[in-house]
Design a protein that fits this description.
The complex is a heterodimer. Chain A is of the alpha/beta class. Helices cover about 40% and strands about 15% of the residues of chain A. The chains are: A alpha/beta, B alpha+beta. The structure holds pyridoxal-5'-phosphate. The site of pyridoxal-5'-phosphate has 14 residues of chain A, from helix 4.
Chain lengths: ~400, ~150
C-alpha cells in the first residue's frame, strides 16, 4: 500500500511543520540514504580500485554495487553508467568530449529546445561559439510544450545532435521524449536526454526510450548532492575521448603517450565521491520499492489540485499546461506582487517554494515573464501541504492589500 | 507573521506603492544593474550638473524591497555632490551588510534596517545602490576627463 503519511516517517526533516514544496530544486533524503552514507564512513571508507586489503575491497564493492543498482534501474549496462557530480557535469562531459574529440566539428548544427535548464543550454551555446558550430533552437508553445512538428523542423535542418529535457523544470511539462528520440534516430541524429526532472518522476528505460545519452542527478531523487550519472550507449562512449584526465582513468602511461582504461573508468578520473554513490544507490533502492503507478497518481493529483484551486483565485496567474502533459511542478504569479515577495510571504506560513527564473531564462522569456513562483510536489507531500499553501495564497491580501 | 512585518513594514510598502522616482530621464546617463539570483533588472538615471545630482530616477521590475529601496535612494541622491553621494551609498551598503553605521547618518535608509535579518533579501535592498555607485564612478571618470 502506498501511504504518504507512512512514507513521511522515513524523512526526518519532514517532521517539522513545513510544507516542503521545492522538490524540483532538491528532494529530502530518507533515513536509509543517510544511514548508508554514515555506515560507509564508519565501516567501509577507503579508496576504490586501488588496494587489495579488506577495507578497500568493501569500498569497491559498495561503489560497484551502487553502479549496478542504478544501471539496472534505468535499464543500462553498468559499463554504460558513468558517475559524475550531477546533470551539469554529465552534460559538460559530453559537450567537451564531442568538441575536443572531433565528434562535432565546425559547421555542424546542434539543436536544443528553449525549455532547457541553463545546464543543457549554455554548454552547447558557448562551445558552439568557440568551435564554430551552429545552434538550432526548438521553440515551445505558449504553455511550454514541444510539438513533434517543431522537432522535425529543427532536425530537418541537418542537425548532428539534439539535446533536450524530458521534463521542464520551469513549467513541469513532460515532453514526448520517446517520440522525439525516435524522430532523431530515423534521421541519424544523436540524442542527449536531460533526465534531471524526468527520472525522479517517471521510470525511464534508456533502451526502450532509445536515447543515446541521458544525464541525471541523485539529489533530485532522494540521493545526496554532488553525485549523479551519465548514461551513454556503449559504442558511442567507446568512440569518445575522455573529458577529465588523471588517475584511475588510465590503462598505461609512458613518457610518450597514455592509453585509457575501459568503460566506465575512462570517464571517471580521480578519486570518486564513493559515499555519494553509496547514498545514490540506496536512494534508487528506496525508489525501486515504491509502487510507481500510485506514486505518479498521487503527485499528479496534488499538482492538479494546486493548479485548479490557484486558477480559481482571480489575482493568480498559473503558467504551463493544465492537462496530462503537466507533472509535479506548478509555476504561478500573483498579480501586482513580485515572486520573491510571494515566496517570502509563504515562508511565514511555513511553506517552502522557490521564486526566480529557475535557471530557464529562455523559457520564461518565451512565455513573457521575468520570474515565477514555483511549487513542486514529490510523493511524500500530502493534501495538508497543498492546503496550507492554498490557504496562505487566499490570505495574501491581508498582508499585501493592493493585490488583486 | 510578525517576522514578515519586520521585513514588510508599512513604510516600505508605502514607498513601493508610491514610486515617485520611477521613470526615465531623457538625455541623462543611465546604467543597468542585475540581481543574478532572481534575474531582476533595474536601470538608474542620474542627471548631473557641475558635479551635483540634479535629478535621479529608476526603471525596472522587482520586489517590494528592491523597488522601495530604489525610490528612497533616488530621493536621497537629489542635490548631492557626486562624492557625497558615493559616501552615502557606501554607508548604506555597509549598513545592510551588518556593519555599524551611525544611525543619524542614514536618514530614510534606516527604514531598511529590518531587511538585515533576511540575508537573502539584502541583495534586493542594495541592487539600486550598487548600480548607482557604479554609475557615479563612471560619471566621475567623465568629469575628470573633461576637467
Ligand atoms: C531539467 C534540469 N536539468 C539540469 C539541472 C541541473 O542539475 P544539477 O544542478 O544537479 O547539475 C536541473 C536542476 O535544477 C534541472 O532541473
Amino acid at each position: 500500500m502506498f501511504s504518504p503519511e507512512q512514507i513521511r516517517k522515513d524523512f526526518h526533516i519532514l517532521e517539522e511543520e513545513l510544507a516542503y514544496l521545492d522538490n524540483a530544486a532538491t528532494t529530502q533524503k530518507p533515513d536509509n540514504v543517510i544511514n548508508a552514507i554514515r555506515h560507509y564512513y564508519m565501516k567501509q571508507n577507503s579508496n576504490v580500485h586501488r588496494s587489495n586489503y579488506e577495507l578497500a575491497e568493501l569500498a569497491t564493492q559498495a561503489f560497484e554495487s551502487s553502479r549496478r543498482t542504478i544501471a539496472n534501474f534505468i535499464g543500462s549496462e553498468p559499463e554504460e553508467l558513468i558517475f559524475t557530480r550531477g546533470t551539469t557535469e554529465s552534460i559538460n562531459l559530453l559537450a567537451y568530449s564531442f568538441f575536443v574529440g572531433g565528434l562535432i566539428e565546425a559547421g555542424d548544427k546542434i539543436a536544443v529546445t528553449i525549455a532547457e535548464h541553463h545546464s543543457n543550454f549554455v554548454p552547447w551555446q558557448q562551445l558552439s561559439k568557440r568551435f564554430g558550430t551552429e545552434m538550432v533552437y526548438v521553440d515551445t508553445d505558449d504553455e511550454g510544450r514541444i510539438s513533434l512538428s517543431e522537432v522535425k523542423k529543427a532536425l530537418d535542418k541537418g542537425v548532428k545532435l539534439l539535446a533536450f529535457t524530458g521534463m521542464s523544470n520551469s513549467l513541469g511539462v513532460v515532453m514526448p521524449y520517446v517520440e522525439i528520440c525516435h524522430l532523431a534516430k530515423e534521421r541519424g541524429v544523436l540524442t542527449v536526454l536531460d533526465g534531471a526532472q524526468l527520472v525522479p518522476h517517471h521510470k525511464v528505460n534508456v533502451k526502450e526510450v532509445g536515447c543515446d545519452f541521458m544525464a541525471f542527478s541523485a539529489h533530485k531523487m532522494l540521493g545526496p548532492m554532488g553525485i549523479g550519472a551519465l548514461y551513454g550507449r556503449r559504442e558511442l562512449l567507446e568512440k569518445m575521448v575522455p573529458f577529465l584526465y588523471g588517475g584511475e582513468m588510465i590503462d598505461e602511461v609512458t613518457l610518450e603517450d597514455t592509453t585509457f582504461n575501459v568503460l566506465p573508468y575512462k570517464f571517471e578520473a580521480g578519486t570518486p565521491n564513493v559515499a555519494g554513490t553509496v547514498g545514490f544507490g540506496e536512494a534508487i533502492r528506496y525508489l525501486a520499492r515504491l509502487e510507481w503507478g500510485k506514486v505518479q497518481e498521487h503527485v499528479k493529483k496534488l499538482a492538479d489540485v494546486l493548479i485548479h484551486e490557484l486558477e480559481r483565485i482571480p489575482y493568480v496567474e498559473v503558467y504551463g499546461p493544465k492537462d496530462e502533459t503537466q507533472h509535479s511542478i506548478v509555476s504561478f504569479n500573483i498579480k501586482g506582487l513580485h515572486p520573491h515577495d510571494v515566496s517570502q510571504y509563504l515562508n511565514s506560513w511555513k511553506v517552502a517554494v522557490r521564486s526566480g527564473h529557475h535557471c530557464a531564462q529562455p523559457q520564461l522569456k518565451r512565455i513573457g515573464v521575468p520570474a515565477t513562483c514555483r511549487a513542486s510536489v514529490y510523493f511524500y507531500n500530502t493534501e495538508r501541504d497543498v492546503e496550507r499553501m492554498l490557504e496562505a495564497i487566499k490570505n495574501i491580501t491581508n498582508e499585501f492589500p493592493w493585490v488583486g | 507573521m510578525d517576522e514578515l512585518r519586520e521585513l514588510y513594514t508599512d513604510t516600505l510598502m508605502s514607498f513601493y506603492l508610491a514610486p515617485d522616482r520611477k521613470g526615465k530621464i531623457a538625455d541623462a546617463q543611465g546604467l543597468e544593474g542585475k540581481n543574478l539570483s532572481c534575474g531582476d533588472r533595474i536601470k538608474v538615471f542620474l542627471q548631473v550638473e557641475d558635479g551635483v545630482i540634479k535629478d535621479a530616477k529608476f526603471t525596472g521590475y522587482g520586489c517590494v524591497i528592491s523597488q522601495s529601496s530604489a525610490t528612497v535612494m533616488c530621493r536621497m541622491l537629489l542635490n548631492k555632490r557626486l562624492d557625497e553621494a558615493k559616501e552615502m551609498i557606501d554607508r548604506f551598503i555597509d549598513f545592510m551588510q551588518g556593519k555599524d553605521v551611525p544611525e543619524e547618518l542614514l536618514g530614510d535608509a534606516l527604514y531598511f534596517e529590518g531587511v538585515r535579518r533576511f540575508p537573502s533579501r539584502v541583495k534586493c535592498a542594495t541592487l539600486a545602490w550598487h548600480t548607482a555607485k557604479e554609475l557615479i564612478q563612471k560619471l566621475k571618470g567623465i568629469q575628470s576627463d573633461a576637467g
